[in-house]
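Problem 3 from the worked examples.
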Amino acid sequence: MTSLFTSGTLPDMHTFKDNVLRIVAVLGLIVVLLLGAWGIIQLAFWLPSLVGNVTGSIGGIFKGEPAKEAVTLSLPAQTTSGDAFTLSWASRNASGSRTYGLAYQCKEGVSFEVTLPGKAAQKVACDTPFKLDGATSSVRITPTLAGTTATPIGVSVAATDSTGAITATSTGGTTVAAAKTTTTTPKPATSTAKPASTYYPSGRTQNLYGYSDLQVGINSAYVSSGRAAIQFTVQNIGTNVAPANWFFTANLPIDGGYTYQSPTQQALYPGDRIVFTMGYQATGNWTNSYCPPSYYGPNASYVAPCHSSYNVYNYDYGSQSVTIHVDPYNIVPEMNEVNNTASRSFY
């Protein structure tokens, strides 16, 4: 059979397929290029605003909000009535100059005095703003507590700008305690002088045995011109040495009773003695010793009242009593402790 296409050539199907793919690829490339060009145009149009937004966002992250103004207060947790303490403060992030004011809580029996630079202390009313003129970081405050119970008090300091507006406030507190009371033993009106002493050795330093025996006796005691004088003797009447470092006490009638303790004394061999002389200011009372009960005139007599011009006052020292005690704590070994004390009353 003769073919119908004897006059032409049969088409190559593989070549046709390749051509179609090339055409599709070219068209796809054209579409991509068109889309790219459009994207570039759009990016160029929106880029300035985009960069601004991103820059603003990043700046917002690192810049943050402006720091607020603050005042930090410092004062002791406990204060004592009558004792001044320091109230200090520190201001941060203030824009411009600042003045400061103080206020403290009202509590019964508590009051504050403030000492400003170059000024005397002045009382401050509670729960009332008080301007701290001249004080920029600290001030001295003296609290007063009328009672005896410790009382907590709230304290605040406020910063004020040039317009008078309060820009920052800080609060704190302290407990005001009662003033400390100390009990001191009153000293005698006139302290006793160190006793004068004279040592009389016996010379017996050998053949020692047994025990020592310290004996005290008061030789004399009297008052002259308001001064009392006492002389007494301490002697070792034992058979052995009384070692050094013994002492004596003297109970004297000064301000209701005063005990003098001597320095430590030297060793006493058998027969040795020391004569001590000591004195003190005698105390007494003024007494009215004379007031005439009547006045005798040339024709009559009558009772007249006592008048100061008739009165005669004397200082009466009264009865004075002293006691001397040798080795009061029985440190020295002795054969007899009874003779270690001697007393005398005199006028």
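Problem 4, a separate protein:
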Amino acid sequence: MDLGINGKKAIVCASSKGLGKASAMALAREGVDVWICARHREALERTADEIAAAGGGKVQALVADVTTGQGRDQLLAACPEPDILVNNAGGPPPGDFRDWDQQDWFDAINANMFSAIDMIRRCLDGMTGRGFGRIVNITSVAVKMPVSVLGLSNGARAGLTGFVSGIAREPAQHNVTINNLLPGYVATDRMWSVLESNAQASGLDQAAHRESFFSKIGARRPGDPDEFGAVCAFLCSQQAAYITAQNILMDGGLYPGTF
């Protein structure tokens, strides 16, 4: 399927690895020019080389931290009129909420709520004026199914979800959509670290814990980052113009609810 986004411009935040990288790769394969960013140059340049080798759209890499105002300034100076924005940032560490102080909460909210809101604020009006825009916020299945050791993430991402619900409908008349993409356990470094923390908290052998955990998922396996990237690219497509203000689960059947 031709997604109809060849030649579009996309900012993909926190995209040197994991879900951000997979999203940038999928968009580039559709002919989208992508601006990727991360804090660490080595991994970022390696990812840029991989995207370029795969063919498709052009890639530009910026060493920038999207969780800072300076980093967001850098991104929008490099790509001032993005057609597509994929918001993403590394998740806060797991732990026990009794151990987190005010600064821990401020850091989590800044990274996983405010930074995305500020990028939307900076990009939305330009998209509506040009008559095309796709915004995808990478959040988490924990928005619907909180994970006890991920309290910082649960709270910050739920806050972003509520904010997006309040603003996402009006821009649709201008062909601008805003959706949240909720990964379950997709095989990234972050996923393995969360499973390791769960095993340690429960006093379980890691291999046995993994086997037991994935047996509870309908697909009986972790997701592949490329699968996630493909869903992200579709949400950015011309065909997805009638999908907005949605929380789209990609979790292999982990979430047990009807709605």
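Solution to problem 4. Residues 9-187+224-250 form a domain with the Rossmann fold fold (CATH 3.40.50.720). Residues 102-130 form the longest helix (29 residues).
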